[in-house]
Amino acid sequence: MMKKIGLLCLAASLVMATGFCFVNQAQAEDTIKLAVVEPLSGTFKDIGDRYLEGVEYAVKIINEQGGLLGKKVEIYAIDSELKPDIATRKAKKLILKDGVKYFQGGTGSSVGAAMSALALKDNVLMTSYGMEAASLTGEKCNKNFFRADCNTDTHSYALAAWTAKSGAKKVIGIAQDYSFGHEAMSAFVKKLKELNPSIEMVGELFHKIGEKDFAPYVSQIINSGAEIVFTSNWGSDLTLLLKQAKPLGLKAKFICYFLNDETAIQSVANDAAVIGSVTGDDYMLTIPLEANKKFVDGFFKAKGHYPSWLRGKSYQATMFWAKAVEKAGKDDVDAVRKAWEGLTYDGPAGTWYMRPCDHQAQVPIWIAEIVKDSAFYKHAYVGTPTMIPAKDIEVPCAETGCPGLDK
């Protein structure tokens, strides 16, 4: 009798255990998991935090509208520490332990390259909304990496187009000494020579990431006689360059990748050091489109501050990814990849198109001058920008170096 009771108890336990497994599996299947790979500690924590906030707001909107395919989107935040090995180790753990299939990131092209390789190996998708090194969709391209953002070629081409018409006779460049900085500089120099060979490029300066003393570089810029300084710097490297340049006597105008960063302008704490300089990117708070005004108003109402720069970039990329998932009709990496190829997205910054041949989004670039009075901030900020269409700055697939997306 005792043996029979024992068997009944064991059977009941197995049923309960099995039922619990089914519940857990059902709960897991009710969510679509999205991991955000950013530096969430250290020198560039502020950059990572703002990118993450843009993704969080996009996911909030998506979930409020019923989720994706009827499922809630769940975010996993990865602190990359801006180190490729740490980023991939943490991502691998999420793939194995939590079944995460989708990853996004915007900071550090070296991190992007490592995540791209991991995505191909483990058949997950990695999307960049700010890792701009052209090589990621060029010679390092693969089928599981998408860039919902501009790259160093298109970004630099747009700034070179403005510089070519500026009337300047001498230009110098300064950039961070890693793949992103070198590719940005190379593309700018190439396009400027093509558009206006009469302009002399008097120098190409490179410095380590996290540089604290820009005095030697500023001296070289002053001695060069350049009227315009091109820089792809971001974060504290942009802030300190601008902050130190004016007191050292630099009068040249900057043309920047990322001077639409309100935090950088605030940190410079000298409007005179930035007014008149020019910036360009695929998202700006001041873009004069109704879709952007709606986005800005909604974000401000929800957060109490504006979605400037990074927040807007990551928001758009997340919405573009979500549109691909909806088109795929199922939570499946291969299906989402195929659905995203050739897809268009109409967002706050205009119409974006995901090119099938290299998974590089074709996006317009917006160019604006830093002006004294802003409708958004009490300090100088970007004025109303003008758009450079994607077709005017695109690089044909045959010229990107991408050997094919099966690589």
Write the layout of secondary structure elements.
Elements: H1 2-29, E1 31-38, H2 45-64, E2 72-79, H3 84-98, E3 102-105, H4 109-122, E4 125-128, E5 145-147, H5 152-164, E6 170-176, H6 179-195, E7 200-207, H7 215-224, E8 228-231, H8 236-245, E9 253-256, H9 262-268, E10 278-281, H10 290-303, H11 310-328, H12 333-340, E11 344-347, E12 350-354, E13 361-362, E14 365-371, E15 381-382, E16 386-388, H13 390-393
Parallel strand pairs: 1-2, 1-3, 3-4, 4-5, 6-7, 6-8, 8-9, 9-10
Antiparallel strand pairs: 10-14, 11-12, 12-13, 14-15, 14-16
Helix pairs in contact: 2-11, 3-4, 5-6, 8-9, 11-12
Quote the average pLDDT: 92
How many β-strand runs? 16
Helix content: 40-55%
Low-confidence stretches: 1-28
User: In percent terms, what proportion of residues is strand?
Assistant: 15-25%
Approximate shape: globular
Q: Please identify the top-level CATH class of the largest domain.
A: Alpha Beta
Gyration radius over CA: 23 Å
CATH superfamily placement of the largest domain: Response regulator
Q: What is the number of helical segments per DSSP (H or I, 4+ residues)?
A: 13
Structural class: alpha/beta
Can you tell me the CATH architecture of the largest domain? 3-Layer(aba) Sandwich
What is the third-level CATH name, the topology of the largest domain?
Rossmann fold
How many domains, as an integer? 2
Q: What's the oligomerization state?
A: single chain
Largest sheet: number of strands, sense, barrel closure:
8 strands, mixed
- Summarize the helix and strand pattern as letters: HEHEHEHEEHEHEHEHEHEHHHEEEEEEH
